[in-house]
Amino acid sequence: MCGIVGYTGKSSALSPVLEGLRRLEYRGYDSAGIALTLKPGAPLWVEKRAGKLENLEGSLTPDVPKSHSGIGHTRWATHGGPTDTNAHPHLDNEGKLALIHNGIIENYVELRAALEAKGHTFKSETDTESVVHLLSDARKAHNGDLAAAMRDICQELRGSFTLLAIHSDDPERIVGARRNSPLVVGVGDGENFLASDVAAFIAHTKRALELGQDEVVDITPSSITITDLLGNILPHNEYEISWDASAAERGGYTHFMLKEIYEQPKAILDTLIGRTAGLDASITSALNFEAVSKVVIIACGTAYHAGLVGKYAIEKWAGIPVDVEYASEYRYRDPSVDGSTLVIPISQSGETMDTLMAMRYAKTHGAQVFSVCNTNGSTIPRESDAVLYTHAGPEIAVASTKAFATQLIAMYLVGLHLGLARGVITPEFVTQMGDELSELPAKVEQVLETVEPLRELTRKFKDSSSMLFLGRHVGFPTALEGALKLKELAYMHAEGFPGGELKHGPIALIDQGTPVIAIMPAAGSLLAEKMASNVQEVKARGAVVIAISDGPVPAADHVIRIPSAHEFLQPVLSVVPLQVIAYEMALARGNDVDQPRNLAKSVTVE
Ligand code: F6R
């Protein structure tokens, strides 16, 4: 949800800023803009354009002045449509101060009224523009000290924000601040970076600093100063980024999504390493599992679907009741939560605002918080009592694939650990499941080797108005995930249902030729028979059925075979063809695979 980058150093700033924006474009692609500082006092150079980053790049002429410091922004619009004027950076009335913002300023209406009354003129419809005017006044009050001004205004702002600002009188300096939105510092040699995400500067440095809540950072090419809002200097908490620039590149694939689908065997393997026999000591020592009588999983979208699979596994293996909650709903219904509740937020980005807010609610009500997250040092793990990092590597495509696979693995690991700790399952069962889990990378590889025919099959349904997904048991969350992938990528109506629920209403949707994807339970199981009946029911009403199964499905029109696996682990395999179908459908319908319309990767607003 908006990508932010800042560079100050020895190089020409335009190139690292543009490169950072390219790498952050997955966060928002409604408009993009750049501001560069020139000589002290010289006017800022600013360019911004509605639409994707390529529009901005296309507008750049060779005579962009040389600059060593600048900021860039790629936007996911909240307040004000995606126009050139609403694009960031926003400037103060003197055109000397430029500001970019990720998040929402909730009190912008009052601020704007007060600033207009003082004579400030506004150009855009954004909430952000209030901040630049406010900062401009504060900077004057602080005799040109931009960092002091930033600290002051942060105390007046309500909502969530990452802010970066530059001023033409002090061209080497960039000042940033964050509350509930991500901001990381890249530590270079004679150059420093600020960004929403380390991907922006990974090609230049692997050294990063975490910035905490309500902190202000002031960088020049040779210095980094982090303070709280009162101006107290805070220690640097530096870490090394564990992946390199190639992990955030397409590497020969036509799309990031395709690359990420094919990276799933490795992502699963990396997430499993060293954990099949028990969770990391850092987790077990930080949590009191004996005190837990209820588990609440909070997540959004794809991560929510992983949580639903987790419910089946944890309830079965650990014998604990599990609720899975949409994070955006959780805290608004006064849920019952206390010290005996183990709250598990699941988040790829670690920055999803709905999940963060739900988690904070639970924490303040005494819950133990054990997050499952893919992004090192992001806010959700930072604020958790313990974290199980999924090792999917950077996920750039907006539609989540490999992160989902690793979230499923995390759910199984949690279920097994809790089950063993509570004496519900035996060490022998854990060993057996550990072996089953260890076979998954090779099995996913096998599925990936057989997906080619899906290309042609998918194209047959490219003009369908709707597609339905049926599943039972853990196949039901898988059906929901398949439908979500298709909606977001193909912009096609898609819904997932439990197979047995069809006859209670949704079967009325079936018409001649309606494509139905049936995720079949393990061949030979009782549920497979029930599901076979559901397939017959939709066939009898004209549906074309594509079954995903580890055995034959005589009634289906097409069967996509997957290897057999333990019934709880099957989603890891059956979701792969669903991802490929969504990908192929997006291509067939001419959609942008990696940056589907209206979406953004990291949803840092509520
Ligand atoms: C769908 C998708 C989203 C995310 C959701 C949560 O493909 O990617 O539904 O799963 O926005 O994001 P995280 O996991 O970053 O909290």
What does this structure look like?
Helices cover 34% and strands 22% of the residues. The chain has 606 residues and is α/β, with parallel strands linked by helices. The strands form four sheets. Strands 3-2-4-1-10-9-11-14 form an eight-stranded antiparallel sheet, covered by helices on one side. A six-stranded antiparallel sheet has the order 5-6-7-8-12-13, with helices on one face. Strands 16-15-17-18-19 form a five-stranded parallel sheet, sandwiched between helices. Helix 4 (128-141) packs across helix 5 (146-154) and helix 7 packs antiparallel against helix 15. The protein is globular. The termini are close together. The mean pLDDT is 95. It binds fructose -6-phosphate. Residues 300-303, 347-349, 352, 355, 399-400, 484, 488, 602-603 line the site of fructose -6-phosphate.
User: What is the helix tally?
Assistant: 19
Classification by helices and strands: alpha/beta
Ligands:
fructose -6-phosphate
Unreliable stretches (pLDDT < 50, length at least 5) are none
Radius of gyration: 25 Å
Helix content: 25-40%
User: Major sheet, described briefly?
Assistant: 8 strands, antiparallel
Span of the ends, CA to CA: 11 Å
User: Given the C-alpha coordinates, what overall shape results?
Assistant: globular
Q: Strand order across the biggest sheet?
A: 3-2-4-1-10-9-11-14
Mean pLDDT: 95
Extended strand count: 24
The proportion of strand residues reads 15-25%
